[in-house]
Design brief:
Elements lengths: L2 H7 L40 E3 L5 E3 H5 L4 E2 L19 E4 L6 E3 L9 E2 L1 H11 L20 E3 L4 E3 L1 H9 L8 E3 L20 E3 L4 E3 L1 H5 L7 E3 H111 L2 H20 L13 E11 L2 E8 L9 E3 L5 E3 L4 E6 L15 E7 L9 E5 L4 E6 L5 E9 L2 E2 L5 E6 L9 E2 L2 H4 L33 E2 L30
Parallel strand pairs: 16-23
Antiparallel strand pairs: 1-2, 1-6, 3-4, 4-5, 7-8, 7-9, 10-11, 10-12, 13-14, 15-17, 17-20, 18-21, 19-20, 21-22, 21-23, 24-25
Length: 577
């Protein structure tokens, strides 16, 4: 950076602009130079030919040259946007600090901007951190120079500065505060005998007078001080917009960090709730499991005891039957006629009693014990639990039948009824799977039984349906586990198919036939004047609408009129309205 520009930036804010609060409190007293401003972030040594990257990070030239370059694509398209300029592919590197992409100019790393501020910081640190002593006045030689004329390039003490401004020849020179770190103007690298007092606006670089009249001839050049002041105003304006942005970012970052802390705390609280709920559920499930296992053990004990008792009864009955059979066989094999005749009464009575004994005893079938995992089982420790044992056993004596077609049916029409299975306590079963057998047999005929269909509804109920082919009396057998249920067997009267009405539902034959005399009605009513049918208010009229074919008063009913020998045909003769 040119010393004039650096001095303009350090001249402070414009007094016409409102003062901005500093981002951090200003340091008090002399402060050593920050090591981050004097040491390369790549090699960690003092800066050597530092270069300022577009991301505003400073790195030594040698460190940048060691970085691996890469191609970043073709050059930008031309101004018309149709074809790229023939400049070849661009080459770039990554900033070793932030890894931002840096497009290298045509001259490579050597063409990047030199960071003069870093060079000044390195020079200041090499002098011990306090900087050089008070500058001497270039006019009178006295110590304590605090001003510098940008036009003449001399350092001035307060007395010589006042004289410099009073002289007519130097009254319009630019005088700025002398910065100990700024030092004297830098010499031109091309013409070391001259200082960089001018700034080329076209090339955006400081130049000396010889450069302005040579390489930069025709370029807009102005005094470096005035250019520094102008560019400094631009930078100060950008700073005025950047500082509030920085404060807003600090506040947003603080809010994010606060939210992050709150999020972590909330996550910890929710995790604790999850663990507590899971542990509660686990404890409830384990307790419910233990309860189910205890219920299963008690049920097993009761069932085993009942089976042992049933087995003992069967063993006793078997012994009695065996003894009766052996005695009867021995009597028939060895006994005389007199012995048979004398003992036959006792033996027959005993064998008949033994043949009837045990008929009501149910054989041990499949043990109906199952686990229903989806069934709600109330609460345990305040948590809902699921899973219950189903140990109901069907009791045929408690099972019932219901339905409109239990005792009546019609030929060639499907009749149905429902079987409700219950246990010994009269409670309805909540499962299916029982052995159900149904038979529909004609009572007075030798025809084969009617085919029946039994549908298991899986809830303890069964739908039974059958279709009788002929009218008559049928016997229905319904057995569960080979035993009759309540009301079985029972009889069903099968009638002929529903007989529809062949006449019309009318008020009288006079009205319905349009006044014809020969029309008759099954109600038997007549009218004077030779009318054979019924009329309102005349003899035999029922006083309400009726069917002309059978005389029934219900419109939705079955017709009982049957055409046979000797039946007057004109009973069916009716005329529609």
């Amino acid at each position: 950076m040119v010393p004039a520009l650096r001095g303009a930036l350090r001249a402070g804010p414009d007094p016409r602009e409102p003062a901005l609060a500093p981002l951090s409190p200003p340091p008090r007293g002399p402060t050593p130079v920050d090591a981050a401003k004097t040491h390369c972030p790549s090699c960690l040594g003092l800066f050597r030919a530092p270069r300022l990257l577009p991301c505003l990070h400073t790195v030594c030239t040698a460190c940048l040259e060691k970085l691996e370059p890469f191609s970043v694509g073709d050059a930008d398209a031309g101004s018309d946007g149709l074809a790229p300029l023939p400049l070849g592919p661009r080459v770039g590197i990554l900033c070793p600090v932030c890894e931002a992409q840096v497009d290298l100019p045509a001259g490579g790393v050597q063409a990047l901007t030199i960071d003069h501020l870093a060079l000044s910081d390195v020079l200041l640190e090499s002098r011990g951190g306090d900087g050089p002593g008070p500058a001497a006045c270039d006019l009178c030689g006295a110590a304590g120079a605090d001003k510098r004329c940008q036009t003449c390039g001399v350092s001035l003490c307060p007395f010589c500065c006042q004289a410099h401004r009073r002289q007519k020849r130097t009254a319009d020179h630019t005088v700025v505060d002398l910065d100990a770190r700024a030092g004297k103007p830098e010499p031109c690298p091309t013409h070391p005998a001259e200082e960089l007092r001018l700034f080329c606006e076209l090339c955006e670089r400081p130049v000396c007078g010889t450069c302005a009249n040579g390489e930069h001839l025709g370029h807009p050049c102005e005094d470096a001080g005035r250019a520094a002041q102008r560019h400094g105003e631009v930078l100060r304006a950008l700073l005025r917009g950047a500082r509030p942005r920085l404060r807003a970012l600090d506040e947003a970052l603080a809010r994010v960090r606060g939210r992050d802390a709150a999020l972590r705390e909330r996550v910890r609280a929710v995790a604790a709730d999850v663990r507590a709920s899971a542990e509660g559920h686990i404890a409830a499930v384990e307790e419910h499991r233990d309860q189910l296992l205890r219920q299963l053990a008690a049920l097993s004990t009761r069932r085993e005891r009942a089976l042992r008792m049933q087995g003992a009864q069967l063993e006793r009955l078997r012994a009695d039957v065996r003894a009766g059979v052996d005695f009867a066989e021995h009597l028939l094999a060895r006994g005389s006629d007199l012995a048979v005749l004398v003992s036959q009464g006792v033996v027959v009575a005993r064998l008949r009693a033994l043949s009837q004994a045990g008929r009501g005893t149910r054989s041990a079938g499949h043990p109906h014990i199952r686990f229903c995992p989806q069934e709600a089982a109330g609460q345990c420790r305040g948590f809902p639990v699921y899973g219950a044992l189903d140990a109901q056993e069907v009791d045929p004596a408690r099972c019932t039948l219901q339905g409109e077609d239990l005792h009546r049916a019609r030929e060639k029409q499907t009749a149905s009824f429902t079987l409700l299975c219950k246990d010994a306590a009269g409670e309805s079963l909540s499962r299916g799977g029982d052995h159900i057998s149904v038979a529909v047999v004609p009572k007075d005929k030798k025809d084969s039984p009617v085919r029946t269909v039994v549908q298991d509804n899986k809830d303890g109920t069964y739908n039974v349906s059958y279709t009788p082919k002929e009218p008559g009396i049928y016997t229905v057998w319904v057995c569960v586990e080979e035993q009759h249920v309540q009301g079985s067997p029972f009889t069903v009267t099968v009638k002929k198919r529903h007989h529809a009405h062949s006449g019309i539902f009318h008020c009288c034959t006079f009205c319905s036939s349009g006044g014809q005399k020969a029309v008759r009605c099954a109600c038997g009513g007549t009218m004077p004047g030779g009318y054979l049918g019924c009329g309102h208010g005349h003899k035999g009229h029922p006083g309400r609408p009726h069917w002309s074919c059978c005389g029934k008063f219900a419109e939705k009913s079955e017709c009982t009129y049957v055409v046979g020998p000797g039946t007057p045909g004109n009973l069916l003769r009716t005329v529609a309205l």
